[in-house]
């Protein structure tokens, strides 16, 4: 018989449950570092195994693990891929504010409505990327620098808000925005998205930590595994190039569409 660990900050998980979540965190970190979408793996695993806990605790604890992994991936990308810090940092700052606002509304907005919106958006994103095989193969800026910065700030605010609400696909939406609208190659977009994603996680935690919603023991244990996966994923992405990242992007978007579609069908 499996017994609960009864350790502070672990939500009465069994040892088998903890090991499963750590494995999910490792895989999520690797996928998220390459193209985003690691939440498709990690968050559902947490919500499935958290015994009797409210969803908000899974959302908040997920941010602790995610911020560690995205920070590690961002550092790895910064050393191995081109990074325009003059654009990435302002985008990250705006995304942080958007995420803070989204986190504050996480309990107030009906997730079923939001999931329908995101499902439609993901289908459109996947089809658009699939129909344009040359998209994101190289850096081809579409705007003058000032306009490009405004486009990035808008994307940071909107997608940051969504991440604060804890919606799926944040990393994938960031990558798509930077590739399709700004004109970055997939590797450059993934690198920039990691910096922005760190900020969105910080914004959410600014709300969740004082509210007492974080299970620190579980979050830190998963963070170690997420970091290991993130570093490996970032190295793989920079070695394999934009073509590999594009294929991973389409795979993750398809997975997100199927996951959200199933969730909506079951909940209907």
Explain this structure to me?
The protein is an all-alpha fold. It is 77% helix and 0% strand. Helix 4 runs parallel beside helix 6. 53% of the residues are buried.
Brief characterization of the structure:
77% of the residues lie in helices and 0% in strands.
List the helices and strands and how they pair.
Elements: H1 15-35, H2 39-49, H3 55-80, H4 85-104, H5 111-131, H6 145-165, H7 170-182, H8 186-208, H9 216-240, H10 242-267
Features:
268 residues; mainly alpha; 10 helices; globular; transmembrane helix
Number of helices: 10
Helical coverage, percent range:
over 70%
Please describe the biggest sheet, giving its number of strands, its sense, and whether it closes into a barrel.
none
Radius of gyration: 17 Å
Mean pLDDT: 81
Shape: globular
């Amino acid at each position: 018989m499996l017994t609960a660990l009864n350790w502070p900050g672990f939500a009465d998980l069994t040892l088998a449950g903890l090991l499963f979540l750590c494995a999910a965190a490792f895989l999520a970190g690797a996928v998220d570092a390459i193209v985003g979408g690691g939440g498709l793996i990690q968050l559902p695993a947490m919500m499935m195994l958290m015994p009797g806990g409210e969803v908000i605790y899974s959302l908040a604890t997920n941010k602790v693990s995610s911020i560690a992994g995205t920070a590690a991936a961002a550092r790895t990308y910064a050393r191995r891929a081109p990074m325009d810090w003059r654009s990435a940092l302002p985008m990250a700052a705006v995304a942080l504010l958007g995420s803070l606002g989204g986190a504050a509304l996480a309990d107030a907005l009906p997730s079923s409505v939001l999931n329908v919106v995101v499902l439609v958006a993901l289908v459109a994103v996947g089809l658009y990327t699939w129909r344009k095989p040359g998209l994101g193969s190289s850096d081809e800026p579409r705007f003058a620098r000032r306009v490009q910065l405004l486009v990035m700030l808008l994307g940071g605010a909107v997608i940051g808000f969504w991440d604060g609400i804890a919606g799926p696909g944040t990393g994938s939406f960031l990558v798509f925005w930077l590739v399709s609208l700004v004109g970055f190659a997939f590797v450059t977009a993934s690198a920039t998205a990691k910096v922005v994603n760190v900020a969105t996680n910080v914004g959410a935690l600014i709300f969740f930590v004082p509210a007492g919603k974080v299970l620190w023991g579980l979050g830190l244990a998963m963070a170690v595994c997420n970091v290991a996966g993130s570093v490996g994923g970032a190295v793989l992405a920079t070695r394999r190039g934009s073509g590999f990242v594009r294929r991973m992007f389409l795979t993750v978007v398809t997975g997100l569409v199927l996951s959200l579609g199933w969730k909506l069908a079951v909940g209907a």
